[in-house]
Amino acid sequence: MNDEKHYQTFTLKDGRELGYAEFGNPEGAPVFYFHGWLGGRFDLHLAEILGKKINCHLISLDRPGIGLSSYQENREILNWPNDIVELTDHLGIGKFHILGMSGGGPYVAACAYKIPTRLFSAGIVGGMGPYEDTKKMLKNPNRILFFLLKKFPFALKIILFPMWKRFRKMEFNEKTGKLLARQGMELPEPDKKIYENSTFQEFMIFHLKDILQQKSKGPFLDGKLFTKPWNFKLEDISKDLKCYVWHGELDKNVSIEIGKYVASQIPNCEAIFYPDEAHISLVVNKINEILNKLVE
């Protein structure tokens, strides 16, 4: 994870830095990846370090205030496509595919809505839906978390900020490995197995420290935005753009009901549901199947 390709930045027109990493095959089809929450540009690197070979040219970005990307005041989800256009123009990539997992789903939808002519296809893996339409489909503890983000954000800061501060100082050892394994005990079996993997545990400590290197302001706003209006409707995404939804039926982070709702609202959407996969396990176990379908 010390390759210089994993620590790249691009200066946007407004002076902000946009951090990104490149994985997979540089000669493959270009796929821009939007991470989950709490996530960052190393999200899909987990699949690689757990033995999955990525055959496309994967360009994975940090959202504002996360990892290497500068914080952006008063941003909205619909601002994200502007950053993507600037970066792809800089890289000389005219058309491309996009893929987002979990909290990256809304950003995929925003690009599909705002810049469809720049896209070959758009894919959402275990993605979140518009909060007002899907909040009743959330399961605890996420229902409580997003309720607090929307109604009592300052109270939630008091809870989250000290915890995230501890994450930034954490080192991987037997104690922190056991801590992560305990966090996975309440998850469905496919995700629980991943949490028990020492390679995953070491990766997560590294990843969390990278995500939080600018402290908590960016990740907190990123979470808060999921409870705000997107200012567009999924049904208004161009029917000329091929979209996909992949979702694990055992997913406890983002329920299968949300995946089905998102798929039903996007005009030209093919949905694939996996009865034996959960939230993290889906992208780890099926990454090649997902990417091959996306770029076919």
- Determine the strand fraction and express it as a percent band: 15-25%
The CATH homologous superfamily is named Alpha/Beta hydrolase fold, catalytic domain
Please give the order of strands in the largest beta sheet.
1-2-4-3-5-6-7-8
Q: Give a count of the beta strands, DSSP E runs of length 2 or more.
A: 8
Number of distinct helices: 13
The ordered string of helix (H) and strand (E) elements is EEEHEHEHEHHHHHHHEHEHH
- Tell me the span between the first and last alpha carbons: 29 Å
Summed over residues and divided by their number, the pLDDT gives a mean of: 92
Tell me the overall shape: globular
Q: Could you say what the CATH topology is called? A: Rossmann fold
Using the 3D structure, state the CATH architecture: 3-Layer(aba) Sandwich
Structural class: alpha/beta
Q: Characterize the biggest β-sheet.
A: 8 strands, mixed
The helicity comes to 40-55%
Give a written overview of the molecule:
This protein is of the alpha/beta class and 296 residues long. It has one domain (4-295): Rossmann fold. It is built from 13 helices and 8 strands. An 8-stranded mixed sheet has the order 1-2-4-3-5-6-7-8, with helices on both faces. It is 42% helix and 16% strand.
Descriptive key words:
single chain, 296 residues, alpha/beta, Rossmann fold, 8 strands
Give the helix/strand layout.
Elements: E1 8-11, E2 17-24, E3 30-34, H1 45-49, E4 57-61, H2 80-91, E5 96-101, H3 105-114, E6 119-125, H4 131-134, H5 142-151, H6 153-169, H7 174-183, H8 189-195, H9 198-211, H10 217-225, E7 242-248, H11 256-265, E8 269-274, H12 280-285, H13 287-295
Parallel strand pairs: 3-4, 3-5, 5-6, 6-7, 7-8
Antiparallel strand pairs: 1-2, 2-4
Helix pairs in contact: 5-6, 7-9
